[in-house]
Amino acid sequence: MNTTLQVIKKIFHKIGDWIVMLWWLFPILFFASCYAYAYTLIECPFTWKEDLAGNIFFAMMILDIIKYVLLILRKQSKRYGISLLIGGPISFVGCVGVGFASMNAPDGYARELSIPKGLKYNVPLSQEYEMQKDSSWVNIPAEAKIDVKDRKSYLQIWDGCQGGIYVYDFYYPSLPKGTVYLKCFEVTKNDPLSAGRVKGASSVAHEATKSFSKIVDKQEFTIFEGDWGEYYAVRVEVWHCDASTKKETKLLEKIYRMEGWMR
Question: What is the arithmetic mean of pLDDT over 199-214?
Answer without folding.
Answer: 96
